[in-house]
Amino acid sequence: MAKSKFEYVRSFETDDTCLRNCYIVVRLDGRNFHKFAEQHQFAKPNDDRALGLMSRSARSVMEELEDIIISYGQSDEFSFVFKKTSTWFKRRASKLMTHVASQFSSSYVFYWKEFFGEQPLLYPPGFDGRVVLYPTNRNLRDYLSWRQADCHINNLYNTVFWTLVQKGGLTTTQAEDRLKGTLASDKNEILFSEFDINYNNESALHRKGTALIWEKRDETVSKRMKLPNEEEREVPVTRSRRKVEAYHCDIIGDQFWEEHPDILEDDNC
Amino acid sequence: MAKSKFEYVRSFETDDTCLRNCYIVVRLDGRNFHKFAEQHQFAKPNDDRALGLMSRSARSVMEELEDIIISYGQSDEFSFVFKKTSTWFKRRASKLMTHVASQFSSSYVFYWKEFFGEQPLLYPPGFDGRVVLYPTNRNLRDYLSWRQADCHINNLYNTVFWTLVQKGGLTTTQAEDRLKGTLASDKNEILFSEFDINYNNESALHRKGTALIWEKRDETVSKRMKLPNEEEREVPVTRSRRKVEAYHCDIIGDQFWEEHPDILEDDNC
Amino acid sequence: MAKSKFEYVRSFETDDTCLRNCYIVVRLDGRNFHKFAEQHQFAKPNDDRALGLMSRSARSVMEELEDIIISYGQSDEFSFVFKKTSTWFKRRASKLMTHVASQFSSSYVFYWKEFFGEQPLLYPPGFDGRVVLYPTNRNLRDYLSWRQADCHINNLYNTVFWTLVQKGGLTTTQAEDRLKGTLASDKNEILFSEFDINYNNESALHRKGTALIWEKRDETVSKRMKLPNEEEREVPVTRSRRKVEAYHCDIIGDQFWEEHPDILEDDNC
Amino acid sequence: MAKSKFEYVRSFETDDTCLRNCYIVVRLDGRNFHKFAEQHQFAKPNDDRALGLMSRSARSVMEELEDIIISYGQSDEFSFVFKKTSTWFKRRASKLMTHVASQFSSSYVFYWKEFFGEQPLLYPPGFDGRVVLYPTNRNLRDYLSWRQADCHINNLYNTVFWTLVQKGGLTTTQAEDRLKGTLASDKNEILFSEFDINYNNESALHRKGTALIWEKRDETVSKRMKLPNEEEREVPVTRSRRKVEAYHCDIIGDQFWEEHPDILEDDNC
Asked: How far is D80 from chain A (nearest CA, A)?
């Protein structure tokens, strides 16, 4: 096909290939989700419909970009980890992060109804993203731990804050003042002694966020077959399928990683 | 708020600030839109509902990111141009392109119904994006000219191809063979002599694509006011509002730019 | 030639091509030149041998990398400007800056004797460098103005400081205290009223630094030739040669640029 | 100190920090060293003076930039490896590579006389450089293996080629033709059967290149001291000093790395 004399402008594009043999993390953050949550009457401190929609959208991203080995989300953010050896989009950072941002955002609107039913979505929401590289398993696990620690810190705060407001009858300003300077132990104590709430019994989804990983599941399906010397009939067939599974557990300690040894690759390669 | 020991992982983020005093172009391209178009029965060679939805989504991006001075789209792609002096997201390339990709994609699903009515969207579509910098007006205009020349080349081809198939009764393979090696003039001639079609009278939307720019419009609204020594009453008030306007015209030549002298900034700054 | 299985490591190299149509500036700065100056007994506040050697080395760089259109130096730094359209090293930033740093440094040692005679160079000096891009003539001129303004500020300070010490008999600490908080006008006044020195009559080399540019010079050389119907004889031949010329003048105002209209390229390309 | 209005140009600098927790390799290559070698009558196929000068310059770089854990050179190239945790120059790629290029180049001229005696250096030589990051020990070792395999391939070729010319009486063109398409085994065979040369007995410096590493050495120096109740006298004092040591051995296999376990850092950090 004929090329135009304007073609030279292509040479202004720069190469942003991600360094090889590193985990590629794409993190998305909701834009102005404070306002978005208010306008859509999200429950406080956590709205399970909203969290479910975030996970559903993340699952849609993972099913589309198969080199993602784990994703982790909490609140209005989600992180996606591409395997070290991924050659998706030739490892071009811009392609990777825009495709993730795009697929997540279209899914968020597409699946809205599944989680919010007849409550209408008032306007199309926005997310922004970034790419970060991690050379070792330690660095990657520390990244995920950082996000889960953030989840914990925020959720503990929000749980006490909204309990003080919703059950304790404080204004938001009063609750804020009450919590100024308190430690985690102070917050646990307020919940326990004043409201008879054991924070550790609160929903794991809220306390730990959501980790999505691929798991192989054996599935038995029945298939119409004609075996030799027989009539055609339904035969049960077992096949292995990769499926995205959700976990709301601690991913900071070793247990989760020991139980799922296939997620991370060997460091010494 | 307490910081975790994992905080150090933040230092792995790299800075991708766009060079100052350059136009920042974000271009989005549909992912697997060939298949998407088929599955949603897009009309051939152009589906006005789909083109309308692309423009509607682009408008949504422009209204959200006000530093975009012009955007141009055709087929399943759209380019967004940020002004040279933009400091949106501190000019961080990753933030700019992911936000554009996200806002465009969520809008595409959100506004689907406005253009496709009861025809359902079967799955959430994906777009990928990239960032390119252009230092001068000449370079930027050549970029936009490149995209419009691409629109012209593709649309002329597709118009003849589908006319041969739809009106000429050729198979797609026959149409392909027929067009192999033909020049633009040959294609125009086939349309004219065999089908009595003057390509230049075809829809400008299809031939030229869509340029979206900001325009100031004077608007007269009536406002209830109380003027001195008068009863309160409705008073007509004129105010200037910036609005996104669509053009389907040539943007390669000088005329468009002379008629809209405010789009580009001075080169000599 | 046989390729080894280790060859894959090449793919870890990243592309650092400089954005097209921008001026590429490489600036070098002496490493620990304070100590270097002391150990080699540089005269205070300016050592003409050292400044001459810097310029000689810069000239060597320009003669080696012909796309440099202007270079500017002062104290222990030198900036080199590549033309917008340069394709030297395919515009790879790393190659450009390392070659400049290397050529400058080897020249500094190579030409040492020309400027310092029998005084020995005690150890090989080091310079570090960086690359900065400027899209417009205004930006580039402002960059060069920034460096010349820096030269002015430092040289005025150093001139007064060392005059107070060398002619005024102050200790360095006393001189420092004396100058704390003084404006340019105060410093000029100290020089004039106390030491009868008009700063503007000081050496232009010290006040303005050194700009090196290419100039065409007509040269008459005599060549042995045999013209038709004549004996072979010496004939004067004029030829034009590009030569690096040094200027110690203001480059902040317009005059220098008007007198050398060929240095900068047109902005509107 | 007063800031000028031109200061804004600093914001055009971009950040080129190297990804953390990766080895940083700076490789230098001689510019036009084929011509340089000819003009300075380098012996063929290897000039020990030139190789010695390269190593001496590399040593000078290592002594200046202490975070370099190993450097490896052959022919007119030298690679420098910074430790993963280095924060030298805040890991800014441009600073690291220009400083290495500068220090190496000034040292090359500075130490010329030590290796070439009265043979004059005709002009200042140039080197260019690049930066490459390697996330794991495997990747880094494969990089160094790649360079040593390159040394082997080139040196075997050059050894046979120049033997054919110098002892075999072939022209360079004849030698070239003779070697076209030959394998390593063929080349070894030519050397052995025709010239009675066992390639493996050739100089290790030529076959293996030069690896420079830091080693701790105990040194006994005598120091004048006054011990309690004694006259002042010379006392032998043992102290540990880090010194750059040269190796001309295989660095592809495991032995070298097992014998020097301190060079590489742990992968799992």
From this structure: 19
